[in-house]
Amino acid sequence: xxxxxxxxxxxxxxxxxxxxxxxxxxxxxxxxxxxxxxxxxxxxxxxxxxxxxxxxxxxxxxxxxxxxxxxxxxxxxxxxxxxxxxxxxxxxxxxxxxxxxxxxxxxxxxxxxxxxxxxxxxxxxxxxxxxxxxxxxxxxxxxxxxxxxxxxxxxxxxxxxxxxxxxxxxxxxxxxxxxxxxxxxxxxxxxxxxxxxxxxxxxxxxxxxxxxxxxxxxxxxxxxxxxxxxxxxxxxxxxxxxxxxxxxxxxxxxxxxxxxxxxxxxxxxxxxxxxxxxxxxxxxxxxxxxxxxxxxxxxxxxxxxxxxxxxxxxxxxxxxxxxxxxxxxxxxxxxxxxxxxxxxxxxxxxxxxxxxxxxxxxxxxxxxxxxxxxxxxxxxxxxxxxxxxxxxxxxxxxxxxxxxxxxxxxxxxxxxxxxxxxxxxxxxxxxxxxxxxxxxxxxxxxxxxxxxxxxxxxxxxxxxxxxxxxxxxxxxxxxxxxxxxxxxxxxxxxxxxxxxxxxxxxxxxxxxxxxxxxxxxxxxxxxxxxxxxxxxxxxxxxxxxxxxxxxxxxxxxxxxxxxxxxxxxxxxxxxxxxxxxxxxxxxxxxxxxxxxxxxxxxxxxxxxxxxxxxxxxxxxxxxxxxxxxxxxxxxxxxxxxxxxxx
Length: 646
Hints:
Blueprint: H1 2-37, H2 42-51, H3 61-73, H4 77-93, H5 97-113, H6 117-133, H7 137-152, H8 159-178, H9 182-199, H10 202-218, H11 222-239, H12 242-258, H13 262-278, H14 282-298, H15 302-319, H16 322-338, H17 342-375, H18 377-399, H19 402-445, H20 448-463, H21 467-487, E1 493-494, H22 495-511, E2 517-523, E3 533-534, H23 540-551, E4 558-566, E5 571-578, H24 583-592, H25 601-613, E6 621-628, E7 634-644
Parallel strand pairs: 2-4
Antiparallel strand pairs: 1-3, 4-5, 5-7, 6-7
Helix pairs in contact: 1-3, 3-4, 4-5, 4-6, 5-6, 6-7, 6-8, 7-8, 7-17, 7-18, 8-9, 8-10, 9-10, 10-11, 10-12, 11-12, 12-13, 12-14, 13-14, 14-15, 14-16, 15-16, 16-17, 17-18, 19-25, 20-21, 21-22
C-alpha cells in the first residue's frame, strides 16, 4: 500500500514538474517573440503578457527581469519600459518601495524620451502609488496630479488613457483619505467610479467602492459604508482578486466593530486570515493582524489579541508601513489600558501620538501646498507647460552655442515680419474685395427696373384713387429703400434683419402680381435669428429668380416658401422653394427671348458668400433641387443655402 502511494506521489510530482517546465518554455518563447516583433503599443503588451493569460502562466518577477535584459540588449525601448514598470509593481507588492520607485522612474524617463504621453501618464501613476504606499504624500500627490494633467491634455484618449485618468482620480482620493479630507476624497472616488462604469472595469469599480466605503466609515456613515464594502467584495469575488478580498473583509470587520457586533467581525476576519498569511504582502498581512487583534481585544481574549497585535507591529516596522505601525501602537495601548497596566498604556499611546503627529505634519504640508492646484487644474497644466518649455530651452542652450541661437532668433524674427506683411497685405486685399462686391451687390439690388416697376405699381393705386393702398405700399417701399441703404454700409447683419428686409421686398414685388404670390416664412423655434450673422441682401437674388423665372410664366396659384433651420451646431440651412414651372422650362423661355441679358446677381452673391465664409471654420454650400411629382413632371425649384456659424 505504501509503495502504491509513493508511486502515485512520484507520478504527480513528475507531472507537475513537466507542466512547470512547459509553462516556463512557453514564457521564454513568448519573451523571444515579443522582443523580436518590437511591438510599439505598450498596452497591447499588457494584453499579451498578462490579461489574456491564465493565472499560472502570468509573468513573475524573474520573467520581467528576462524581458528587461533582452529588451536592453535588443534596444527595444517599449519592452524595457513595460518590464521596468512591472518590476516596480513586483517590488511594491513586496513593500520594497525604493526599488519600486527606481524602476518606475526609469520607465518614466524612457517614456519621455520616446514622447509616448500615454505611457508617461501610466508611469507617473505608478510612481505616485509607490510613494503613497510608503507614506510620502508630497511626492505621491505631485506625481498623480502630473499624471492627471497629462492625461487630460490627450485629445482623443484611448480606453487605457481613460483608465489612467481613473487611477489618478482614485489615487488622489486615497491621498485625501490619509489627510482625513474625507468629503474631498468622496468627490474624487465618484469621478473615478463614473469612468470605471463607462469602461466596464470591474477591478477599478471594486477598488473605488472600497475607497468610498472607507471615506463614509470615517464620516460615521456606517450603513452606506457597509453597502459599498459589500459591492466591492462581490466584484472582487467575481474577478477573484485576492488583495481585494483581504481589504474588503478587513473593512467589513471594522464596520462591525464600530457597530459593536464583535462576533460577526471575528467571523469575517477569520475567513480571510489564512489567505492573508499565504499571500506574500506584508502590508495586508499587518493590516489583517491588526484587525484580528482589535476584534479579540473587544471580545476580551487578551492573550490571543496581544500576540496578533505584537506580530502586526513587528511586520509593519520591518516593512516601513507607518500607517499600520501607528494603528498597532494605539491598539497595544488600548490592550494595556484594558489589562490595567496604565504605565505601558501611556507609553504606547505616546509612541503612537508622536509617530502620527510626525506623519501628519508632513502630510499637512503637502495638502496645503497642493490644495489650490487640485481645485484649479488649469493652473497646474500651465505650470507643467511652463516647466516643459524651460526644460526645452535649457536643452537648446546646452547643445547649441550662442552664435547659432542668435542667428536662429534673427531668422525667425525676419520670417515672422515677412509672414505678417504677407498676412497684412492679404487682409487689405480681402477688405477691398469685400467692398467691391458689396458695391456691386448694392447696384444689383437697386437696379432701375425694380425701382421703376415698383413705383409704377404704386402709381396705379394713386390713379385708381386707392389712397389707402398707395400709402401702405409707399411706406413699405420707402422702408425697403432705407433698409437697403443702411445695410450697404455694413459687412453683415442678423438673420432676423435679413428676413425682415426680404418680407418688405416680397410685398413690393407682389404688387405686380396682384398679390397672387403666397409668401410663407418658416423659422425653426430653436433658431435664434438675432445671433446668426449673414451678408446683407444675400437672399434677394434667389427670391428674385424664383419670382421671374419660376412664377412669372405660371398660371394659377403661386407660392414661395422661405424655410430656415439649424441642421447642426455649426450650420444653418436656408431653403427658398417655389412651385413654379421649373428650371428646364424657364431655361427654354429664356433661350427663346430675342434680348438676352447676363444676370450677375447670383454670381456676385456666390462671391460674397465665399468671402464671408473665409472668417469661419466651415464652408458655405449652395445647391439647386428640381422638384417633381410622382409622374416626374416639374412642380417647382428649391435653392438650398448652407451658411457656417463658427
